[in-house]
Amino acid sequence: MGLAVICLLPINRIVYRFILFIFTYCVLSFMKLNYTPFLLEFKHPFGVSSNTRKETPTVFLTLESGGWIGYGEACLPAYLGETTEHTIGFFEKARPLLEKIDSKFELPGLLNKIDLLEQGNNAAKAALDIALHDLEGKRSGKTVAEMYGFAQSEARDTSFTIGIDKEEVIIQKLHEASEFSILKIKAGTEDDRKLINLIRKHTNKPLYVDVNQGWKDKHHVLEMIHWMKEQNVVLVEQPMPVAMRSEMAWVTQRSPLPIIADESVKRLVDLEKLEGGFSGVNIKLMKCTGIYEAMKMISWCKKNNFVILLGCMAESSCGTSAMAQLMASADYIDLDAPLLYKNDPFRGISYKNGKIYLNGKPGTGVEPLPELITIG
Ligand code: MG
């Protein structure tokens, strides 16, 4: 009897270790999803041609697998038409798919499956895409830029955005933007010439002008573009409403400046249907469902000689750092959103003298600030 117990002890130890191994493998390997809604607060109310807002609802997300954590963000300004409730609903719809997957997932295949779960929900899909790219980067020890074959990007100039506001606030914002070499101006009202003239009293910096569909007459649009070229405006974004396709094509054919599509193009399929309406596109992760689709759009633009502007939907450092991984591909960069907030709960890219710097850490290079956010 005593001999039998002694003989069983090592077997028990092996069984115990085997059970512990299986338990650890399951706990650490299979993907775990968590999320937290968050309200990003602007330093100044942010005005565009259709509305002004003080904050941006956002949902932050973590995907945990193999001992790594990937971070994602769904940024949800109201005009996007995607709510916190819908976004969380989509995460829950994706949960069974994600929780079946271990740390050795195949990224494009998984992203295609997520995309097919339901139409729309582009910001929710972008959050999952960003977190999965972050995980994949951490697993492989590469930055997302390296995963897509970009050399560790040099720092790039970004524009600094100045929303529609009262004269005194615009002047204050111009001072705040002193270290930036390019400004992005929100326009699209009857006072656009007055606005540019005001800015020109204070600075001669090149300007990107974003009209947010605010102009309606094609002759007026062309006249404004010619006048703006003389004011050192270097591009005009979405001058007319999405529905005015033939008028946009008419303007683009005659414009001396690049005409960039924003509201007219969400995903690759929209780019393919443009038919001469624009000469470039503002690619945003929240519109296009994430990095994977953004890379497809970048390839299309390179093939079709289309101007690439990398922008954002006013994300925190979490989403903006993900997009900044692709900045080596861009003609123009508008990724200043984290600077517009007073409670950005992530750290990632940094800004110095108007340039964006990647930090070279694997994945998207972001980490949450525990004093501002706990996810899950
Ligand atoms: Mg825009």
Regarding CATH, which class of the largest domain? Alpha Beta
Would you give the CATH topology of the largest domain? Answer: TIM Barrel
Number of domains: 2
Rg over C-alpha atoms, rounded to the nearest angstrom:
24 Å
Unreliable parts: none
Q: Tell me, rounded to a whole number, the average pLDDT.
A: 91
Order of helices and strands: HEEEHHHHEEHEHEHEHEHEHHEHEHEEEE
Describe the model.
- The protein has 376 residues and is α/β, with parallel strands linked by helices.
- It has 2 domains: 28-141, Enolase-like, domain 1 (2-Layer Sandwich); 147-368, TIM Barrel, CATH 3.20.20.120.
- It contains 14 helices and 16 strands.
- The protein has an 8-stranded parallel beta sheet. A 3-stranded antiparallel beta sheet has the order 1-2-3. It has a 3-stranded antiparallel beta sheet with strand order 4-15-14, with no helix packed on it.
- Helix 7 links the parallel strand 6 (182-186) and strand 7.
- Helix 6 (167-176) crosses helix 7 and helix 8 runs parallel beside helix 9.
- The relative contact order is 0.14.
- The model has no long low-confidence stretch (mean pLDDT 91).
- Magnesium ion is lined by residues 210, 212, 237-238, 262, 282.
